[in-house]
Amino acid sequence: MILVTGGTGFLGSTLIKQLIDEGVAVVATKRSESVIPEYLKSSSLIQWVDADINDYFALEEAFEGISHVFHCAAMISYQPRDASQMMKVNIEGTRHIVNLCLQHSARLVHVSSIAALGTSKSRQPVTEQDKWEYDSKISKYSLSKYESELEVWRGVVEGLDAVIVNPSVIIGATAGKKGSGAIFSLVDKGLKVYPTGSVGVVDVEDVAKLMIILMNKTEISGERFILNTENLTNKALLDRISILMQKPEPTIAASPTLLSIAWRAAKFVSYFNNKPPAITKDSARASSAKLAYSNKKIIEATQYSFRPLDETLKEITATYQTKTE
Fold it and tell me: Which residues does the UniProt record annotate as the domain NAD-dependent epimerase/dehydratase (predicted)?
């Protein structure tokens, strides 16, 4: 039996949809307050279990009869006020999953992130071999994903059968207006400023498909794979979205210096309105970073062809515009 953690999330729900479309039954965990997506509500192939990722005993019950686990549950935030909770969810939660997989001899596909990778010393695209190095400028999100990945590697040493995937920025039509979906909302509102960094992006459908492929490739174990469709500058990505949405392309470059002023100003304002700042030091640094990511290893291992980015962007734009009409 298959277990999917974070079943109501963007990636988790996409993965479940692909599995049940193939007639595969799954057990899916969610938080008690989470809303099940409409396209999953009526399926008799899904057994929903309320089990917080930090509740070991609830997870233990969900693991009954489980032989394969997709660990999608995680917290993503660049807000300083969320740091402690995010570390707890991403690290302790993964520790629980790893320990239970060991206990039940279950095969694990763990969703990590490019944020858990190192940087290339040769100015070439980052690969799975580039080692993560601690830096005081590293975001808490990056630290949490790196340390959660360490839990999986610890499990591998103890005999865990596991594969790790490191997706770049995941996009897709079901993201809505949150997370990566917020980019389309900003462009729709007439975004004039663009960060000067670069980004790697990947379709959520590709990530889910590759997770299933890797789960079934039992000869692959103790490996990690970057999942990335294309590398491009933030400006290039925003321009392509703007053209599709028939909106003006952003023309003002938000340099690291300008972003540094912006996050400080946002932090100052947040002291008075008690709302999370619109931009933080970590998010400013992330948007200014200039990194590229290699997908050579996953292609060689699976012969998989990623969906062209333009197709994904067209689908997201069409879905977004339909919902906002």
Answer: 2-219
| Mean pLDDT (whole number) for 31-39 | 90
CATH for 120:
3.40.50.720
Residue 278 counted as domain residue: no
What pLDDT is attached to residue 40?
Answer: 94
In the structure, what pLDDT confidence band is assigned to residue 292 with cuts at 50, 70 and 90? very high
Q: Region 60-78: what's the mean pLDDT? A: 93
Closest CA to 149 of 213, 71, 207, 227: 71
Around Cβ 247, how many Cβ atoms within 10 Å?
17
Q: Kindly report the pTM of this predicted structure.
A: 0.91
Total number of domains constituting the chain: 1
- Report the C-alpha gap between 107 and 216 in whole angstroms: 10
Q: Is 260 contained in some domain?
A: no
pLDDT at 50: 94
55-66 burial code (b ≥16 CB/10 A, e <16): bbebbeebbeeb
- Domain contains 164: yes
Closest CA to 50 of 73, 37, 32, 65: 32
Across 286-312, average pLDDT? 92
For 16, the domain range is: 2-175+200-231+291-308
Residue 295 lies in a domain: yes
- The answer to whether 16 and 40 are in contact (CB under 8 A) is yes
Residue 177 has pLDDT above 50, yes or no: yes
Sequence-distant (≥ 6) Cβ neighbours of residue 123 within 8 angstroms: none
Contact, 28 vs 7, CB < 8 A?
A: yes
Q: Which of 161, 164, 167 is nearest to 218 (CA)?
A: 161
Using CA atoms, how far residue 99 sits from 73, 119, 133, in Å, is: 16, 30, 26
Specify the higher pLDDT residue, 206 or 81. 206
Nearest to 313 by CA among 202, 232, 209, 231: 202
Mean local confidence (pLDDT), 113-134: 85
Higher pLDDT, 276 or 210: 210
- Which of 107, 77, 112 is CA-nearest to residue 94? 112
